[in-house]
């Protein structure tokens, strides 16, 4: 009987320790298909979301995702409301987990049929290009816009659902702007889904890897999670990408 009670106390101690070591992790994200979004069943899904969830299975970390506009995610990490935020780069000013599963593939989208030859766009003296006022763009992208003497049109854009993208691309109607600078992967899905008369200039404008940003106070946890993500198998990453993008992407 004495041995039984010793074993019981030992087991209780182990369970208490495991509970103590369990850590809730709060990650903020903006809606960005196919990397992070809330589906029709109000479930958080996406390539990066699925990778993070899978990598943390069997660890003490209990991850919860919170969907908010981009700037509110940044503010939430800065004030400690959230531990991490997705989709940041060096322009955002946060330390990062140095493992990337997303790339911001900036491209210029134009109205289908407006330019019979792509060079016609670049002959414009000062093409009106719409960008989001919510993001800090990489310096290389900023310099690229200056190089073509772009007249910048800034607009706040927060996509709450796929239907919002129709309104976003409507600025190309009636030539209100000549092009919009968008992520190519996201835009291709919106064009397909809504059968929009939108196409791209042939050469990508700029590509920038995106990372997970965090408050410096969370550095120790960030390094542990970074190690887990580094070890996540490439084969499983590819399977998750195919799940959302298909085999031909």
Q: How much helical structure, as a percent, in the residues?
A: 25-40%
Q: How large is the count of helical segments?
A: 9
- Main sheet, how many strands, which sense, barrel? 9 strands, mixed
Q: What is the β-strand count?
A: 11
Categorize the overall geometry. globular
- Rounded average pLDDT: 89
pLDDT < 50 runs, ≥5 residues: 1-20
Radius of gyration: 22 Å
Roughly what fraction of the amino acids lie in strands? 25-35%
Distance between the termini: 64 Å
H/E element order: HEEEHEHEEHEHEHEHEEHH
Q: From the helix content, strand content and strand pairing, which structural class follows?
A: alpha/beta
How would you summarize the topology of this molecule?
Blueprint: H1 2-21, E1 23-29, E2 37-38, E3 44-45, H2 47-55, E4 61-67, H3 70-78, E5 84-88, E6 96-111, H4 118-122, E7 128-132, H5 139-147, E8 151-155, H6 164-169, E9 179-183, H7 184-194, E10 198-200, E11 206-214, H8 219-230, H9 234-245
Parallel strand pairs: 1-4, 1-5, 7-8, 7-9
Antiparallel strand pairs: 2-3, 5-11, 6-9, 6-10, 6-11
Give a brief description.
Residues 1-20 have low confidence and may be disordered. 37% of the residues lie in helices and 27% in strands. The chain has helices at 2-21, 47-55, 70-78, 118-122, 139-147, 164-169, 184-194, 219-230, 234-245; strands at residues 23-29, 37-38, 44-45, 61-67, 84-88, 96-111, 128-132, 151-155, 179-183, 198-200, 206-214.
Can you characterise this structure?
The protein contains 9 helices and 11 strands. With 249 residues, the protein is of the alpha/beta class. The strands form 2 sheets. Strands 1, 4, 5, 6, 7, 8, 9, 10 and 11 form a 9-stranded mixed β-sheet that branches. Strands 2-3 form a two-stranded antiparallel ribbon. Strand 7 (128-132), helix 5 (139-147) and strand 8 (151-155) form a beta-alpha-beta unit. The protein is globular.
């Amino acid at each position: 009987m004495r041995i039984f009670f010793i074993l019981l106390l030992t087991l209780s101690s182990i369970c208490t320790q495991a509970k103590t070591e369990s850590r809730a992790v709060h990650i903020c994200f903006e809606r960005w298909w196919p990397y992070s979004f809330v589906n029709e069943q109000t479930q958080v899904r996406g390539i990066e979301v699925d990778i993070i969830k899978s990598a943390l299975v069997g660890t003490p970390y209990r991850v919860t995702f919170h969907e908010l506009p981009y700037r509110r995610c940044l503010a939430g990490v800065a004030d400690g409301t959230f531990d991490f935020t997705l989709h940041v780069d060096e322009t955002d000013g946060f330390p990062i987990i140095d493992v990337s599963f997303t790339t911001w593939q900036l491209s210029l989208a134009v109205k289908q049929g407006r330019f019979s030859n792509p060079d016609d766009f670049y002959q414009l003296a000062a093409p009106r290009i719409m960008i989001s006022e919510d993001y800090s763009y990489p310096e290389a992208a900023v310099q690229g816009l200056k190089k073509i003497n772009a007249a910048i049109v800034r607009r706040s854009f927060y996509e709450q659902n796929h239907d919002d993208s129709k309104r976003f691309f409507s600025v190309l109607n009636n030539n209100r702007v000549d092009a919009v600078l968008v992520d190519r992967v996201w835009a291709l899905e919106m064009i397909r889904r809504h059968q929009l008369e939108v196409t791209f200039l042939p050469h990508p404008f700029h590509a920038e890897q995106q990372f997970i940003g965090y408050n410096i106070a969370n550095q120790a946890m960030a390094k542990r999670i970074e190690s887990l993500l580094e070890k996540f198998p490439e084969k499983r990453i590819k399977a998750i990408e195919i799940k959302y993008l298909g085999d031909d992407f």
